């Protein structure tokens, strides 16, 4: 519905034109989205269709929209991009009063930036190739879920649909050696909601939490928003340096032991036992984020922390964001029995439960074996992409590049030891000018410690095809050559 600032009883073509123009410039419809048809908008606004037609004609004459007979008007991309700065929201004179949580979040907010468009190759981590998504299998599962008529339309179990939790129980046992009861599984809206629930229930202002350094910044933001203090522990090629935990008191530790983000190390069994011993001694919980544990290439799987020593201090966090799509927002927690009812209550007051159609569809894919088959296919494809990236980097840079984190996951780390870290921003800009998106390791550190003084890049490859990877590395080499 168009939001009008004027009296609706005096609404005319001019008022509709101005409202639409401002919303177009504010990107309410995106940079090339479609507007309602003149008939539909007239019905919404309670005006004659001719009134809307006049407003649309004026917008088209000024270049704000593009019109075509028989089609809905579409925003003109060039005008929106050029005129973005024309619409500026008036600052409110009223001072906003925030809670302590809101004030902390305002001081250190997470940053979201729109993914760059038109790049030859974007090595951004966390994105998947649309061609990898199992469209037919997912469509079949969703159609079947929608065709099943429930007895009633009502809120469901906040822990998640029993069918999905049962299917996840079997999947976790056969794929990750995680043994748990169905009641220990809580379905959440992606791993981020799982982190948020844990932060709210386990941390108070003034508490301390352990973070890998470098590590996953969204986890740090989530925990710090409670008022807790981050204790950064360095990471080496084997993950978190657990020996440095001696004497550290904290309520919580967040780790990525199966494939450390971002450096890619796989935590050996000795360190895993050290971490669990520390958690028991401090009566602390360990959040084990197994964000891309399905992707293992040249390493044998090591049992997750949850599979060791009973898992009484471990909260296991999984997601389908790296296997199906980050847009689905489906994740799950495997929690100690003592926390189950509390986490269920927190989930219920947050959003009642995760959408049921998607839960049912995922359960169907897990039960039928379609999900396991999909994992095998995309694991092979991503292994091919990784090989293409490694070959291209070595061919273009030779001994100038040192690569880490190849044993598992969907990204590698490339260190350019002859490029000082102070050249990092210049390299990122030079690469972007060539049409290549690259991202630095240095932005992911928590503490002041910087073990390397050279440029390090986190290079994701799961959204790219082999030809893009090879061309992207060629252009990256040209960008590096400009700095020499």
Structure description:
This protein has 484 residues and is of the alpha/beta class. It is 40% helix and 14% strand. It is built from 15 helices and 16 strands. It has helices spanning 13-25, 38-45, 49-61, 77-83, 100-107, 135-147, 162-176, 190-202, 217-224, 269-281, 337-351, 356-368, 370-397, 424-433, 466-483; strands at 65-66, 74-75, 121-122, 185-188, 208-213, 229-236, 239-240, 252-255, 285-289, 314-319, 331-334, 401-404, 411-420, 436-437, 439-440, 454-460. The strands form four sheets. The protein has an eight-stranded mixed beta sheet, with helices on both faces. A hairpin with a 6-residue loop joins strand 12 (401-404) and strand 13 (411-420). Helix 1 (13-25) crosses helix 3 and helix 14 (424-433) crosses helix 15 (466-483). The radius of gyration is 25 Å and the shape is globular. The relative contact order is 0.12. The model has no long low-confidence stretch (mean pLDDT 91).
Distance between the termini: 55 Å
Name the beta content range.
5-15%
The biggest sheet, with number of strands, parallel, antiparallel or mixed sense and barrel status, is: 8 strands, mixed
Total beta strands: 16
Which bin fits the share of residues in helices?
A: 40-55%
Shape: globular
**Major sheet strand order:** 4-11-10-9-8-5-6-7
* Discrete helix count: 15
Q: From the helix content, strand content and strand pairing, which structural class follows?
A: alpha/beta
Radius of gyration: 25 Å
């Amino acid at each position: 519905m168009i939001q009008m600032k004027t009296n609706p009883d005096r609404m005319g073509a001019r008022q509709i034109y101005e409202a639409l123009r401002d919303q177009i410039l504010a990107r309410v419809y995106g940079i090339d989205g479609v507007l309602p048809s003149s008939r539909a908008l007239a019905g919404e606004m309670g005006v004659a269709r001719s009134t809307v037609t006049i407003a649309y004609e004026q917008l088209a004459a000024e270049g704000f929209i593009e019109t075509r007979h028989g089609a809905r008007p579409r925003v003109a991309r060039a005008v929106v991009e050029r005129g973005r700065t024309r619409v500026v929201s008036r600052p409110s004179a009223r001072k906003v009063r925030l809670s302590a949580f809101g004030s902390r979040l305002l001081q250190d907010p997470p940053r979201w930036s729109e993914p760059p468009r038109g790049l030859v190759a974007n090595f951004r981590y966390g994105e998947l190739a649309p061609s990898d998504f199992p469209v037919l299998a997912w469509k079949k599962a969703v159609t079947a879920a929608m065709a099943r008529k429930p007895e009633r339309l009502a809120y469901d179990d906040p822990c998640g649909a029993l069918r999905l939790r049962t299917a996840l129980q079997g999947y976790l046992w056969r794929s990750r050696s995680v043994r748990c009861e169905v009641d220990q599984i809580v379905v959440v809206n992606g791993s981020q909601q799982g982190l948020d629930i844990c932060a709210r229930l386990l941390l108070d202002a003034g508490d301390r939490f352990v973070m890998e350094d470098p590590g996953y910044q969204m986890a740090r933001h989530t925990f710090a928003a409670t008022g807790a203090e981050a204790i950064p522990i360095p990471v080496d090629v084997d993950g978190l340096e657990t020996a440095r935990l001696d004497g550290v008191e904290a309520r919580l530790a967040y780790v990525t032991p199966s494939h450390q983000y971002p450096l890619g190390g796989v935590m050996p069994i000795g360190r895993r036992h050290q971490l669990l011993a520390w958690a028991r001694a401090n009566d602390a919980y360990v959040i084990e984020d197994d964000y891309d544990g399905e992707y293992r290439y040249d390493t044998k799987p090591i049992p997750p922390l949850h599979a060791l020593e009973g898992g009484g201090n471990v909260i296991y966090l999984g997601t389908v964001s790296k296997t199906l799509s980050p847009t689905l927002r489906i994740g799950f927690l495997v929690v100690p029995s003592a926390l189950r009812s509390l986490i269920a209550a927190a989930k219920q007051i947050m959003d009642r439960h995760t959408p049921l159609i998607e839960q049912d569809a995922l359960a169907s894919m897990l039960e039928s074996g379609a999900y396991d088959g999909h994992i095998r296919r995309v694991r092979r494809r991503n292994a091919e992409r990784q090989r293409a990236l490694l070959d291209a980097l070595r061919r273009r840079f030779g001994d100038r590049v040192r690569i880490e984190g190849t044993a598992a996951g969907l990204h590698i780390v490339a260190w350019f030891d002859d490029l000082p870290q102070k050249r990092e921003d210049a390299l990122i800009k030079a690469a972007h000018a060539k049409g290549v998106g690259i991202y630095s390791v240095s932005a992911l550190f928590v503490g002041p410690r910087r073990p390397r003084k050279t440029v390090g890049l986190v290079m994701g490859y799961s959204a790219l095809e082999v030809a893009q990877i090879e061309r992207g590395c060629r252009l990256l080499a040209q960008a590096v050559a400009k700095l020499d």
